[in-house]
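Form 7-S
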Amino acid sequence: MKSGYKYLIGIDEVGRGPVAGPVAVGALIVSASNLKEVTERFLNFKDSKKLTPKKRNEWFVNIRQAQKEGLLNYKVVFVDNIKIDQFGIVPAIRACIDKSLETLQTVWVSGAHKSDCLVLLDGGLRAPDEFVNQKTIIKGDEKELVIALASIVAKVTRDALMCKFAKEYPEYGFEKHKGYGTKAHMEAIKKYGVCEIHRKSFLKNFLNSKI
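Output:
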């Protein structure tokens, strides 16, 4: 374990940029006693952005199996488009991080002090200040296994939710673009208007230009 910490936590977010759907944060925790086995099991892992959807789902199955075996635990937390519109994307992501860490501590490391944890975060993310041992790593999903695994669980879980939304709102093709502002998606918005899961704050300029 890095520098003698009892728990290693990786955090990554997905869904910052889409114009529809929630933002999601994945947090994944491994104890010092399990780190070697987890590292060996996921030795050939690549970050989620470099995997095909099929491969990403295969890795997700492996992560869930490791969770069932008690080797690790993870939590994915969403903040929906309504709260994103109300509070902004950065506070929404921060709320996801806070909730994911709170849940992991409650269900898996109850009684452990926050100083027992080393939290590794991707990009520009930060954990709450009480997690005094934390490090933000640019392209962390390429450099740290726990961040890469957190990225997988967040990505797969959010994609699955967007596919469910696609059945409720079939006009927009959410199963294809997962809410990102592709040409086809924007054309659908022109034709059908926004639906209940669109981020109106992200579409404000686009919608105003069509008035």
